[in-house]
Amino acid sequence: MWEAYGLENEDILWSCIAFIGGIGGQQMTPCGALSAAAVCLGLRHRCPIKDKPKAKQARVLIRQYSSDLVQSFAKEFGAINCLDLIGIDFSTPDGYQKFLSSGIWEQKCNKHIEFVISKLYDFEEDNRILPLA
Fold first, then answer.
1. How many CB atoms lie within 10 A of CB 114?
2. Which residues pair with 30 in a beta bridge?
3. pTM score of the predicted model
4. What DSSP line would sit under 12-27, residue for residue?
5. Which of 41, 75, 96, 111 is buried most, with the most CB atoms less than 10 Å from its CB?
6. 126 to each of 54, 80, 116, 121, 132, how far by Cα in Å?
7. Range of the structural domain that residue 105 is part of
8. In this predicted model, what pLDDT tens digit does every residue of 45-103 receive, in sequence order?
9. Does 132 map to a domain?
10. Is residue 131 part of a domain?
11. How many separate domains does the chain show?
12. Looking at the domain assignment, is residue 133 inside a domain?
């Protein structure tokens, strides 16, 4: 996702790696793709905190985009929470292994990721973005 916003740094990938399965596989949180997108939005629209008017404008925009993303994701997939989206509980002894062998990653998770990336590109193409500071 970081590539969608020209943030070509593997540190960004690693900063979001714990979002797999919600957060840490606990599944009680939003889909990791949504959480990672929120990080990308913050990085994409970051600006100097000392520039208070611009920082306020950036926070409003990031919140707007994040809200739009979550609402459209929920409309598309019927939920935002990992467990509700994939239907396999990782907390059971064989849950995560069942998830890996079931093909749900390809069937569902990839669609969630593709949807989120597409929305990030849409935000960029809408030309409603703030330039990087």
1. 11
2. 81
3. 0.82
4. HHHHHGGGTTTTTT--
5. 41
6. 19, 24, 15, 9, 16
7. 2-125
8. 888 889 999 889 889 999 999 999 999 999 999 999 999 999 999 888 898 899 989 99
9. no
10. no
11. 1
12. no
